[in-house]
Specification:
This protein is α+β, with helices and mostly antiparallel strands. It has one helix at 2-17, and strands at residues 20-21, 33-37, 45-49, 61-65, 85-86. The protein has one domain (2-86). The chain contains one helix and five strands, in the order αβββββ. A hairpin with a 7-residue loop joins strand 2 (33-37) and strand 3. Residues 1-17 form the signal peptide.
């Protein structure tokens, strides 16, 4: 019984410890998120904002973030300085 209680409490702790960076729905200029990648535990995040015609083409603004949600120094001025960290990926 003690083993089961320890196992369940360990699972709860591990599940609560998962944190992933999440792109903001818009950049600082209000441009919508159109593409993203990463966002898994321990993986940097790419967030792309801008208008894509018929689903083709590249985003007009590219924002890159570290695993802690902080932006890289080469981010354009319209990129949020940080992005939120979520409890689930």
């Amino acid at each position: 019984m003690l083993f089961r209680a320890l196992f369940v409490s360990t699972l709860v702790f591990v599940a609560a410890a998962v944190e992933c960076p999440a792109c903001a729905p818009t950049d600082l200029d209000g441009v919508m998120l159109v593409a993203n990648s990463g966002g898994t535990r321990g993986t940097p995040r790419f967030c792309g904002y801008g208008t894509r015609v018929n689903g083709a083409g590249d985003p007009t603004v590219l924002c890159f973030y570290g695993i802690d949600g902080s932006g890289f120094s080469n981010n354009p001025a319209s990129c949020p300085a940080t992005i939120p960290i979520e409890d689930v990926c």
